Every structure is written in structure tokens, then in C-alpha cells.
Prior knowledge:
By secondary structure, the protein is mainly β. The protein contains 4 helices and 13 strands. The strands form 2 sheets. Strands 3, 4, 5, 6, 7, 8, 9, 10, 11, 12 and 13 form an 11-stranded antiparallel beta sheet that branches. It has a two-stranded antiparallel ribbon with strand order 1-2. α1 (31-44) packs antiparallel against α3 (178-186). The longest helix is centred in the first third of the chain and has 14 residues, at 31-44. The chain is globular, with a radius of gyration of 18 Å.
Amino acid sequence: MVDALFLPDGGSYVPTELTRGPWAADAQHGGPPAALLGTVMEQRHQRGDGQIVRVTVEILRPVPMTPLRVATEVIRPGRNVELLGASLHAGEVEVMRATAWRIRTTAPPAAADRPPERALPPGPDAGRLRPFFPTGHDVGYHTAMDARFVTGGFTEPGPATVWMRLRHPVVAGEEPRPLARVLVAADSGNGVSGVLDYRRWVFINPDLTVYLHRMPRGEWVCLDARTTVEPHGVGLAESVLSDVEGLIGRGLQSLYVAERPG
């Protein structure tokens, strides 16, 4: 039985069926490889006094269902602020890259005032299971994730509020990191809040940017998502990100919008 998104194999990571996305049978959903990049970046460049506050993922090509190699680097070292980088290769072809800003954490000022937070959506226990886009496959990203909708649904056009959590580790034998839990869910903002009929249109994101003022606590990540599409085929998906305790950040995705071939 498949029990992880990726299986380590020497210096490579072998994707399982759980990474398969809805757009093509031989391509992954963007969430799993984004989570893999975040996981490996944190593993290779550990730091106890810092937090990753922004991750930008560039999806250069469809990520294939083949073994992948991850290269990482510290692009800009620093005591207070540093920039990490990672790239994902299928063979000799770079298919995805990511950059992440990490800021040194300090004790908050004694008199720091926090603005009132927006109301937190009802929790995952109040959500409903809703059908995923028909993909023709029994196993894929849609079975790797537990998704509970408070409003909307994958096949219901318009804004949506959904709680998501991983059902399986990102890498076999490893507990998913908080950053990975955010990235694997945040890449679904366009999918849960699409405003066009998925049977006639594709709305694919070539990127994902996530801003985090704190890391999630627990397994669940909430996306309060909405999509805007312009008549010239360009769109933007925006997600307010929360955990069961409150707001944690924002997610943004640019969208390429086009009619499905045929």
C-alpha cells in the first residue's frame, strides 16, 4: 500500500500515485513537489532561531511522475535575514524551483499590540467532504489530502473555505514539517475557488507564493480562497491561511486560463 507522497531512493525522490494531479495522468499536482522542496530546504539548512516567512515556488514545467532530484543552496546568508533556494530536477531538466526568506526570531516587544484578527471559520469538524474533479484515477492528490469544506467545493464555482490535512507523510518515514503542511495545501487555492467550469476550462498556476507570520500548529490548514479571472485569460487566486488557533498567513497564485483542448 502506498503510504507516502515520495519514497527516498539514494539521492532521488520517487513520486507515488498520491502526487498525481487533475490536469494530466503523467503529471503531479503542484502541492506535493512544493512541499518536497520546502522539506528538503529545511532539512539541509537547519537553524533554531529563524522562521521561513515567505516561499515562492516557480513551476517551470509539468512535474512528471518520475524520480526527482533536489538541489539546495543558501543564496544570501545572514545573521538576521537569509535567502534559501532549491530546485527540482527530473533527469537533467529543471521542473520547479523555490526561494524562501528566513528571518531570525526574537522576543516580542513588551508592549506589542496585535490588531484584532478576522473571525476564524468554523473548524474542520464543521466541514463536509465534497467530490474532487473527476480524474479517471482512484489514487492521486485527491486521496492524499483530507479536505473538509465549510463553504464551496472543488466542483462548485466561486469562493470556498476548506480545511485540509495530509493523510500521508511527504517523505516516507518522516513526520511532515509545518511548512510542508502549508505548501501542499496552499497550492489548492485555485482548485477550490475556481470560477469557471472545470469541464471546459483549465486554470493552471505557474507559481505559488506563501507568506507566513507564524507556522501552523497541528495537522489542519484552512484556505479561505477566492479567484479572480479577467477576460484576457489571466487570473489570480488568493487564500487567507489559518490553523485551528488563528491566522497564519496568505497564499497567492497567478493563473493561466484557457479552454480545454477539444
